[in-house]
Amino acid sequence: MTTSLAPALPACAAALFACGLAALLAAAPEARGAGDPAGRLALYIGTYTAGTASKGIYLAHLDLGTGKLTLDGVAAESVDPSFVVIHPNRRTLYAVNEIANYNGSKDGAVSAFAIDRKTGHLKLLNQQASRGGGPCHVSVDHHGKCAMVANYGTGSVASYPIHGDGSLGPAVSVDQHRGTGSDPQRQEGPHAHSINPSPDDRFAVAADLGLDRVFVYKLDPGKATLAANDPPAADIAPGSGPRHFAFHPNGRNAYVINEMLSTVTAFHWDAKAGKLESLQTLSTLPAGFKGNTSTAEVQVHPSGKFLYGSNRGHDSIAIFTIDPETGYLTPAGHQPTGGKTPRNFGIDPTGHYLLAANQDTNNITVFRIDLETGGLTPTGQSVEVPKPVCVKFVPQS
User: Residues 324, 306: contact at Cβ < 8 Å?
Assistant: First the structure.
């Protein structure tokens, strides 16, 4: 049976907005009027649609002067577009469709959408098979030549050329991970959970929850190819379940958040060799917490001073400060997310706000970031969105 995903629809997230970041920083919130359009960011929200009221990808706007968040409805209809990413030129959005029956196969799909610069609405350009079941993460290299997808269900990664109009060509490279982990329930096989380009686009890093490994690939964005690096991976403590990954802006450090043990591991990154060296592993939870919980997202603040990770169950954002010389982490507290089961969260490119997507309470909440301490303060702003999974900002021209 053919499943139609037809519409009506970064890690280095800050780097994906590099073309607009300088202008935004020059027009800091303190210097702008609340109604100035230059102080607004578009926000695209990936969701789960199966068995929910969600229609697909939603559009909202954040006013950087006031912190007000406004929901503007459905940007495009699509089936389970859980994770999204924006092309560096801000003209295209890519989404994984977290299914396992694309065109009658056992694959999921990855979709390319053109962004209407005036309305923010999305128009489907094309779709490709994800070359695995249950795709859960998509990224784009920093020059916008290549898209990469991680398939959780079958434990594979794939790479795609990006055409001049933003559409995707068929997968050029596909790598199927193999093996098992230490937990027979969660790690019975590979479960690729993310793939991110290195800051210089020479490598791509893929975290596999099922194998407790972080794979490193040689990346050729121009050819959209992935090839095993030497060494091919870094091992994480058994039963950790590495999930999402983030590079530090300094290009020397990186971090992976481990879903199953609720920990975060800091690495030294050898940019020449594409090698990860583990430095430390810390809990994302308060001392003594015994409840059922797991982690989801990890991001470095654009300043490079702070690291944030989401706890599902404890329903909080874990806050860490980062030593600028070594990359080591120091716990700096927790902030409740104002909802249940926070998945992805977004830090706006200016670094002033963090928005948390609470999947099981159908809301996105806004926090102001203390630029000295990294602390989070609720602004009282929140919008309702069915089953939000992922949020990505787009600076508006």
Answer: no
Kindly list the distances between the CA atom of residue 64 and the CA atoms of 42, 51, 221, 373, 389, in Å, as whole numbers in the listed order.
11, 34, 34, 20, 22
Here the tokens at position 381 are 């702003």
Which regions of 337-396 does DSSP assign to beta strands (E)?
A: 342-347, 353-358, 363-369, 376-384, 388-395
Fold annotation for 13-395: Methylamine Dehydrogenase; Chain H (2.130.10)
38: three-class secondary structure by DSSP: helix
Tokens representing residue 178 in the block: 């193999």
What is the Cα–Cα distance from 151 to 133, expressed in whole angstroms? 6
| pTM for the whole structure | 0.90
Q: Please answer whether residues 384 and 45 qualify as being in contact, where contact means their C-beta atoms are separated by less than 8 angstroms.
A: no
What H or E segment, with its residue span, contains residue 77? Answer: strand 69-77
Maximum distance among all alpha carbons in the chain? 56
Nearest residue to 166 (alpha-carbon basis) of 110, 207, 212? 110
Which helix (H) or strand (E) segment holds residue 23: the answer is helix 18-26
- Other CB atoms within 10 A of residue 7 CB: 23
**Exposure pattern of 109-121 as b/e (b: 16+ CB <10 Å)?**
bbbbbbbeeeebb
Main-chain dihedrals φ then ψ at residue 160, nearest 5 degrees: -135, 140
What is the pairing mode between strands 173-176 and 156-161? Answer: antiparallel
**Cα distance from N-terminal residue to C-terminal residue, the chain:** 43
Amino acid at 300: V
Sheet of strand 353-358, all strands in order from the earlier edge strand to the far edge: 342-347, 353-358, 363-369, 376-384
Which tens digit of pLDDT belongs to each residue from 172-220?
999 999 999 999 999 999 999 999 999 999 999 999 999 999 999 999 9
Residue 168 CB-half CA count within 13 A = 30
DSSP string, 248-264: -TTSSEEEEEETTTTEE
From CA 50, how far away is CA 40, in angstroms rounded?
A: 31
Consecutive 10-residue averages of pLDDT for the chain (397 residues):
35 38 37 46 97 97 94 98 98 96 93 96 98 97 98 98 98 98 97 98 98 98 98 98 98 98 98 98 96 97 98 98 97 98 97 98 98 97 98 83
Distance CA 149, CA 151 (A): 7
